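Friendly challenge for the regulars: who can give me the structure tokens for this chain first? No prize, just bragging rights.
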Amino acid sequence: MPRIGGPALAALAMPAICVSCATTPASAPHDPPAVAVFSPGDCGHPIHRIPAAIRLPCGRIVAVCEGRGSLADNGSNDLVMRHSDDGGRTWSACRVILDLPGRSINNPCAVHVANGAHAGRLIVMFQSYPTGAGEHRVQPGIEGDLTCRTLVIASDDRGASWSEPRDVTEGTKRPTGVTSVASGPGAGVQLRHGPHAGRLVMPFNEGPFAAWRTYAAFSDDGGDSWRMGQPAPEGSPGRGNEVQLAELADGSLLMVARQFDGARRRKVTRSTDGGETWSPLVDQPELIDPSCMGGIARIDTPSGPLLAVTGPGDERRRMAGTAWISADGGATWPRTIAITDGPFAYSVPVALPDGRFGVLWERDGTGTILWQVLGIGDR
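First reply, four minutes later:
Bragging rights claimed.
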């Protein structure tokens, strides 16, 4: 497959459009327990899976996911979007923001550029597979029709319009040995502290299937170019994939990974050099994981920064959605917040400005994705 956009699109050139969005407080005591953001039939898709979400400085929450024709991972998947300007109480109409005929779109991961040459830009990174040739069938390398490719689209007007897709496979995938890659899914970060402040960091895993490794791809020029760091060494039994990360107060990064064939605990690894290298990937005893993608977010509160990890709270099934809370940079996770007693699959926590946080999460098996706002002291 030729590279979409080609080398001439090394940087996105889009006009700076000023689009206002409301600054309504992110939540209030009367917020409903959950609001359906994507439901069967929205944008013409019976299934919606793999949420990505981010809150922009103006208060707008942008939610993106895969609009699917079935529950199968590989198919005629589109990228669809809604946004909310009132903290998630109401949402805009569903829009298809990207359709690549003959290709399956997977693993959306969003990041906002807060400063630098492209300040205000919203970037969504994702993978493109040949329809019918998913993770088990794609070939190694960065060229050819049967390769998994990484693309980005970007918006300079808070999601009102989007650029054409641009291929960034060369900077995010190793040229030999690697079959599939996955960005996130969920959200990346722009570092605020330390020697790499301003860097965009996207969490990644790479195949082959069942031999996954976790790593990060990063950009120091606002997303114009990308390069990748080294994979995290394996530190405990099992493998990790489908990763999310958060920046700590000192500029270091904590990454959490879905576990396979391990101890049914989410795996964690840390980086002190902006995602270029990682500590061994090890089990975190408190973080239950039946093998399901989970999210992480840093939440700034009046008493200091906290971390929230979201995922199923049942060791065997995708049930009992739970948020685990850490006040010591992820060393321990002594507090939990119940999200739901029922089915719960992929999830993305989003920090809100009042010390609360929202969670965009899948009600597993229904094709429905919901938004829920939680207080950090909720039980």
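The first helix runs from residue 169 to 172. Confidence is low (pLDDT under 50) at residues 1-20, 22-31. Your move, everyone else.
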